[in-house]
Amino acid sequence: MIEVRSVGLKIGTSTVLENVSFTLSDGDFTAILGPNGAGKSTLIKILLGLVPEHTGQVLYDGVPAREWLRKNHVGYLPQREMVPRLFPGTAADIVRLGLLACRGAFARLPANAAQQVHEALEMTGAAHLEHRAIDALSGGELQRVLLARAIVGGSRYLFLDEPEAGVDSQQIAGFYSLLSKLNADGRTVLLVSHDINVILKTVSSVLCLNRTLHCHTSADLVSAEVVQKTWGDVLRLVDKHF
Amino acid sequence: MDFPVFLVTAFIAALVSAFGSGLLSTFVVLRRASFTSEAFAHIAFAGMAFALLAGLPYGLVTFAFVAAVAFTVGLASSKMAVAEVNLTTIFLAVSMATGVLLLSLNKGYTPDIADYLFGNILLVGEDDLFVLSILAVVDLVWLAVFFRAMYYTAYNETAAAVYRIPVRLVTTGFLVLLACNIVVAVKIAGVVMITAGLVLPGTIALLITRRILMAHAIAVLVSLGATIGGFLLSYTGDLPTGPLVVLTQFGAFILVLAVRGLVRR
């Protein structure tokens, strides 16, 4: 379980997040929705312990995040991961980082590490990229490799920041089907997305965020009023059947 | 053929130093720390001048000075509106100016500034060889223990931090190790050329291979090979050793580029 209590963040005079509180139960499949600049990615980074200067508290299973993250890790798919040009590494090398996380940076990798890496890549449809140079991957291919990295360590939590970015529209359904399967296997999934239409059909609950939390509700209860509160007048919820 | 003891000592010291810098070179290149290395070498100059003026142990004072500046830059740049690279450049220039000023104030014997700028392998004694050897062992142990952490930190620090790599420990430890190697090797290579020894072997290695362990091995071999080549040329041509080692490395760099160009065609 993840508890977020009155989390806030100011950068200079700018308020990025203000008084954000919510609880994620084990097994939740939750989307964070909101306009650009709403603080969605920042909230994920706070949960990951990457922004220590925030106010408020984050607790994993009742333990402060800083302490919990020393011994545990979260599978994380970032919005954008800069891959250094000509970096000497393959997709398998990058996925292996996820395996390292569950044991600690200085521990021996398990004897079947190569097999686990391969299986994770197979699950994300990227097995054919296993020995490809990491800087030679397209955006969509890199997303699949990074998702494999996020799941290989077996973390109970998966945080994904705009995971559909760079994925072909034909493959998006398969991508979300994979996330649903991972959730059904017991992982708590928290994702940031702009694709409201797909998300509302996939996740079980939604956090509507625009600097502050406007709602935390089940996906089928997201109404036009909630959308208007979160996005303002720039977005309208239109129900159209083609 | 009998070689003078000082020459043998100098040659062994150069090889040991080359081994150490070859070991670190690949990560210096991957972490884009070539400018930091250059800056440390120049910043060391002020530390050396101060040690000479105050009659204090050269190595410790110089290292303390470089470490203090490195920590100051790391701490201050996040609090001030000055990018770390710009702050490092400022300290580089100020350190060089301070070093020249301090040397000008020295009333006693002042070694030739050229020896500091370009190094003089023949000044290396058995004590220096001992320190170099210890440092080479420390470099090897550090890499053995922190290899994976260094690799993933060089790849992407945010990803490394999320996946429980101790990024701050690795980064700070590497900078301290780099500072130590630079301070110790400055006597041999000089402030101007020490960066070449830390950058060229790794650059050459990464042109040859995309496998990280192989790159490290190649970098060490290039570093050792260039040192032997530079020494041979220096001995036979009666020319300064340091510049010839750098030019030999550069020759290897051009050769690898040329071969790559041919292979691609």
Quote the distance from N terminus to C terminus of chain A: 40 Å
Q: Taking Cα atoms only, what radius of gyration of chain B do you get, to the nearest Å? A: 19 Å
Provide the low-confidence segments of chain B as ranges: none
Radius of gyration of chain A: 18 Å
* SSE topology string of chain A: EEEHEEHEHHHEHEHEEH
The helix content of chain A is 25-40%
Report the structural category of chain B. mainly alpha
Cα distance, first to last residue of chain B? 47 Å
Summed up, the helix count of chain B is 10
Counted by DSSP, the helix tally of chain A is 8
**Average pLDDT for all residues of chain B:** 86
Overall body shape of chain B: globular
Task: Please outline the major beta sheet of chain B.
Answer: none
Helix content of chain B: over 70%
3D shape of chain A: globular
How much strand of chain A?
A: 15-25%
Number of DSSP strands of chain A? 10
How confident is the prediction overall: mean pLDDT of chain A?
A: 86
Characterize the main sheet of chain A: 6 strands, mixed
Question: Which characteristics define this entry?
Answer:
heterodimer, A: 242 residues, alpha/beta, six-stranded mixed beta sheet, four-stranded antiparallel beta sheet, 8 helices, 34% helix, globular, B: mainly alpha
Question: What can be said about this structure in brief?
Answer:
The complex is a heterodimer of chains A (242) and B (265). By secondary structure, chain A is an alpha/beta fold. Chain A has helices at 40-47, 65-71, 91-101, 113-123, 139-152, 169-184, 196-202, 224-231; strands at residues 2-11, 14-24, 29-33, 55-60, 63-64, 75-77, 157-161, 188-192, 205-210, 212-218.
